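2024-03-11 09:14:02 INFO receiving multi-entity request
2024-03-11 09:14:02 INFO entity count = two
2024-03-11 09:14:03 INFO echoing inputs for audit
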Amino acid sequence: MCSGARLVDSPGTASLSDSRHSASARLVTNPSVSNAALIGRMLGLGWRYRARCLLVIAQQMLRVVLQLAGLGMIGLGIDVLRSYVDPTATAPNWPLGIHPPASWSPLAVTATIAAGIALFSLAHAFVRFLAEVSKARLVERIVVDLRSRVYARLQRLSFRFFDANETGSLINRVSGDVQAVRMFVDGVMVQVTVVCLSLAVYLAYMLQIHAGLTLACLATTPLLWISAVVFSRMVRPEYMHNRTLVDKMILTLSENIQGVSVVKGFAREPEEIAKFRAATSDVRTQKHKIFWRLSVFQPGMAFLTNINLIVLLGYGGSLIIAGELRLGEGLFVFAGLLQQFASQVDQIVNITNRVQTSLTGAQRVFEVLDAPIEIQSAPDAIRLPRARGAVSFEDVSFAYRDDVPVLLNVSFSVEPGMCVALVGETGAGKTSLVNLIPRLYEVTAGAIKVDGIDIRRLHLDDLRRNVGVVFQESFLFSNTVAANIAFGHPDATREEIERAAQIACADRFIRDLPKGYDTVIGEYGANLSGGQRQRLAIARAVLLSPPILILDDATAAIDPQTEFEILQAMDAAMRGRTTFVIAHRLSTLRRANLIIVLDQGRVVQVGTHAELMADEGHYLQAAGLQQHAVHPGMSPPTARRISA
Amino acid sequence: MSNVSPASTLTRWQRLDEHDAPMRPLDLGLIRRLYEFTRPYAAKRNWLLLCVIVRSLQLPCLTWAIAAIIKGPISRGDSQGLMLGVAGFAALAISTQTVLHFRQRFALELGELVVHDLRNAIFAHLQRLPMAFFHKTKLGRIISRMTSDIENVRIGVQEVLFVSLVQLGQMAVAATFMLWYDPILFGMVLLLAPVLWGINRYFHRILSQAHRDVQESFSRVTATLAESVNGIRVTQGFVRQERNAEMFTELVADHATYNYTVNRTQGMFLPLLDLNSEVFLASLLLVGGYRVLTPEVGASIGDLVGFFFMANLFFTPIANLGTQYNQALTAMAGAERVFRLLDTEPAWSDPPDAIELPPIAGRVQFRRLTFGYEEGRPVLSEISFTAPPGESIALVGHTGSGKSSIINLVAKFYIPWSGDLLIDGIDIRQIRTDSLHRQIGIVLQQNFLFSGTVMDNIRLGKPDATDEEVIEAARRLDCLDLLMKLPDGLQTLVGERGGSLSLGQRQLVCFARAMLADPRILILDEATSSIDPITEARVQRALFRLLEGRTSFVVAHRLSTIRHADQVLVLDHGKIVERGTHDELIARDGTYAELYRNFSQASAA
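2024-03-11 09:21:47 INFO inference complete, emitting structure
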């Protein structure tokens, strides 16, 4: 095999991007970035939203206080009742020394307290609602800001960056990881403050009721906390392992379905069933392990909470008997407080887990935000609304990776309106060369000039608007046909769009689509063939009527009729522009004003078709014109597809 | 967002499928079917039910014990009784948590076992479905049956059923206790219950709509995001960065408002629920206080405190049950979809008296055969031709002319509407599909490889083949050297869908796979992607070796292949318009000659 894995020219395909991974463009999650630095940066992020954070904290604290007041009132109510029924019981402890007038009947006092409870409950519910709303506002604000920033950054990063990073990972950075960073603000920063403050409040309240009882009841708390942390550390790897097993199972399923014709064609159903069964059994067995741990841990935790109650009942009960504790404001309130306290301790476990998630997420988000925008306009960039179309390469070298040169000392110049064909084997550097013209990649050495101006000095947007590109893979967006053609000029009128489509020989098939120009591409039943997609890509480039046009022809063979039509489209599109075409077809080569033959990144021949045919050089071989030697019994060139 | 003109958005977003409704009313039939899946694990299931019953008694008992201790020893001032009571409470707590261990473990395990069996059942069922099913069903849809839908069923089995049972039991026992303590106070509790339930249902209904909105707007965000990353080259080439960034900010903000709605609704719902029980406690204090203070009633303060605890035990499950109920509806929707897939009848299957295909010579005959994928839209009409054993048939025509349909029929991926397809004179409908497939080799355009080694992939053609046989197959194709040149030779991992091999290498592996199976009939849909000239030559040579001596049907994209064929069938709109050898057809100067001219023009004009 002559060219190993490098068979496709498209810069987007996986096979090639491997060889283009560059140390600087690839996002490798770097473990050496210190957590402290990340946390510092996230604190900085939170500081931007300080007013909103403070509001949430204040409302949460008000909520805690109102809740405690309500609980205290119920306790008071019980004690008041008890003191009326059993005069020997400890007298109720009126808060803030406010006694009801002695003239009030017991029932009136009880009713007042009940009204107080109801009032506090109302206030509590209302403040809690407010706090939730403020928190939702905070979250919304951070997420929108961060997502927009990461997306805007992504839009401007260079092609090298996208060659080096997987789509899935980039998408996750905007969707999932941003949430993880946001969580640091509302789930860690705010929450830590709230938890600490409310634990302090609870503790103070309990201590004020009875110090000894408080200590006795809280004795198990550290144990509760430690075992929760230990447990979550222990099961996390198990869950991660489980996820890989599930992924493996899904892979078996999806391969089975995508390869259904192979499975059926070779009658492999029984083997496939056995393979899938093995995968599901792995998942099940591993899950059972997790279940065992889970169902030891949770009852264990529940029992620790029970111990608190046991202490409260035993110790607290004897204190009541000894007359040192009240039933309502003491025991009853204490039981309620213990419950609140335990739920706050649970929060701490959640928070520690969140910190871990946030750190990973933050690293991945900041990597994108910090990725350098390698290619951008210089501050004093020259504006060039419309170029004439002269292009020259002066000693241009280029490499994706420092050690592997892709183009070496390429020089040539092209007059406005000329058609240049690039010829060479896979990997010779044709696509790389054309990608340099609109500065999709930056030259490593030498200079490219448009209308005599170094493209690095031109305003980037102007340069790119002057160069129309038809990419090899003809990527289209899932939008209407019209919107796709108008991609570079969203305000184009329908007439302009149709004219572009006519030039690209696409108008006829578009009108045959179910909804014509308004057909949504990719919608069920409206999938386009390769040739149709390519013609839309040509129309998209032609709409802008650029003085310079780049046609990176797809190598995929389509049925002969379509191929003929694409050729016509390309011919029409080239008229009146400086065109660079990566040619696979003899007809194009014949028509070109200039043919540049590339071999391993060097220009080995330059000339017209006629000149080069006369020359015994690379051209004949690179253009596949001598292939008949390999194929006895076929008459070239008609029987051959020319694939360069 | 829906009113924005299409030109300024990046993607056209499509509504969620109606069939994917997130919830579905409780359905006894579905529940019974799920229950059937627990039958193999009846012992575990029955122990689990026992645990559930025990636990729904234990939980109220724990609370009752607290109340009893306060009411009894503490009120009486009996220290010794207090210690006894506390010891009893501790014992009860230990037994409760022990039962919890089993309750939880058995429920989790049972759910996982049911899921495991369901997954295998789905997979086995999928293997039975004919090609037409895969033609019209998207992969993502099948995967979500196997993941999210089954996941919802799992939660239904693991949690909803048993947690709800415990909670309902707990409520019933708590109600009994309260009734026993004080029927009048209990009457008040009963009055409040429907209010709580009403609030629950109201908010859950609003929330589930809001969640749906969030989900839909999020899928818009991710779809746009995916296209933005995939289409970044176009975006930058056409200078659309600014516009895309603005549009994305709008989209994200839109999504955030839906999220905000959910959070705000939730922020109203939960406090409102709690408010209810708090207001109840206030009124309980009032009414209970009245009853304690009125000597004629003579209620005890201990009973009142006990009542407070029990009321709590009665209320907590209500909020919980609301969530469980919602979860149950989700599980129903998941179960319905899973079972709908399991119930998909194969559009056709072998008749019971289908015969095992004896070793064949390889004669294939089409007799006035008509076929289509959708009713009323035939793709092939009245096709008749014969392929004698060992002959190579090239199929030529435009996209959609019916070439692929012919090979799909020979492979029995589909069956004809009318007319006959005979293999060695036997009607293909009467042949057992698996026995036919053992004598047919198939190489399709995608050159699909399974993740695994090159060796595994070739061996797929004959699972019991030895390593030597695999190597021999590659050698007979004269491509062994190319495969051995891979990093780990035949042990090279091909990666997901063969991603780490080049197109040419993938084709050769597929050829070797078919070679190893050594079929009498070979079906080949030639790959359209062209490869560099030298590899291409090797692939062509391997192809001719593979075709040698077999009846073959080739959807041809290369002239060399067409010229090599014994018979060329030119198809147009489902009819054979011309047939003959390449030279004959050129001489005839008809459709084929024109196709050929365009083609030549394209490559050489």
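2024-03-11 09:21:48 INFO post-check: Chain B touches chain A through 171 residues (CB under 8 Å).
2024-03-11 09:21:48 INFO post-check: Residues 453-518 of chain B form one domain.
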